[in-house]
Amino acid sequence: MASHTATVGHEQEATTEHSHGHVTNTGLSNEKLAMWVFLGSECLLFGALISSYFLYRGRSTTGPGPDDLFDIPFTSVSSFVLLMSSLTMVLALAAIQRADYRRLRIWLMATALLGATFIAGQVYEFTTFIREGLTIRTNLFGSSFFVLTGFHGVHVTLGIVMLLSLWNLSVRGRLTRERTEVVEIVGLYWHFVDVVWIVIFTVIYLIPT
Amino acid sequence: MSGAETHEAGEHGAHPTDAQYVRIAAILAVVTGIEVGLFYTSFAEVATNVVLLVLAGIKFAIVAAYFMHLKFDNKILRRLFVTGFVLACFCYFAYLLTLGVSV
After folding, report:
1. Which residues in chain B have Cβ-Cβ distances shorter than 8 Å to A11?
2. Chain B: residue whose CA lies nearest to A198
3. Is residue A136 part of a domain?
4. Which partner from A72, A187, A199, A201 sits 20 to 30 angstroms from A43, CA to CA?
5. Tens of pLDDT along A157-191?
């Protein structure tokens, strides 16, 4: 390993270590590269959903609109919860890098619980909106809002499943420092879900119609 | 080389410490508080909206740079993500402008 890294330079040295010794054309771990490509494509998906929301939100003639429904203090707390889950996620990654498996499990579980709290808030918000008369079929605003935030909620839920899987692996002693990259890749996904919400919170909730 | 050393030394720069991550999260929380405060102010709507978008951009950049480690990782990853993001922005701005939607 030492002679190999000496010949391929600093950048490839780092990536070779990350990919557990597999040499690739890019000098990067295939799994990590694939996750970044996936996240790039997810930008296009959420871009389409946000654009559709902009296109439709002001065109409803029936039913309640954003100004009648949005509860900014409640959504602000939800946003704060998701933002803090990014902190616990990155602390989990730092813990496994130090081989501190007890803290790894604590931070992974904390991240999953914060994510679950966010989802619970979203379920409550959806339920409230439906009680107020806005469903996915009420008007164009309802359709685009539920599809956009629903897609985001599904992403968060998948992230929670991945986090709990990592926690389970760690409890069984199968998530060691040699597999740090697995935590890093799940972390990338989780942080992406967070940055998408940063955009959604501003453009959908805070900027008025 | 241990895994931890690999991650610290094998990148373009050392990753932040736990305390630094907490400080970064505190900055993000403060920016979110400012955003919510701006929502309730009665400044000019256009100016407020521009500031809100700038603050969201700052939060986005901080999370991507520090929590997703783009600041410290290989440039190829940064280019991949930025390309996808810029392409999405350009594509959908053009789309919305074509349809006459004011963003």
Report:
1. 74
2. B56
3. yes
4. A72
5. 999 999 999 999 999 999 999 999 999 999 999 99
Do residue A14 and residue B6 have CB atoms under 8 angstroms apart?
A: yes
- The reported pLDDT for the residue numbered A16 is 45
Q: How far is CA A25 from the centre of its chain?
A: 29
Residues 17-76 of B with CB under 8 A from A: 17-18, 21-22, 24-25, 28-29, 32, 35-36, 38-39, 45, 49, 52-53, 55-56, 59-60, 63-64, 66-69, 74, 76
CA distance A42 to A34: 12
Q: Please count the structural domains in chain A.
A: 1
Assigned domain for A182 exists: yes
- Can you state the angle between helices A140-171 and A101-131, rounded to 10 degrees? 160
Q: Which of A42, A43, A76 sits opposite B36 (nearest CB)?
A: A76
Residue A9 lies in a domain: no
pTM of the predicted structure, to 2 decimals: 0.86
DSSP state string for A106-127: HHHHHHHHHHHHHHHHHHHHHH
CATH number of the domain residue A76 falls in:
1.20.120.80
Is residue A64 situated within a structural domain? Answer: yes
> What's the domain range around A120?
30-206
Quick check: ipTM above 0.90? Answer: no
Mean pLDDT of B63-83: 90
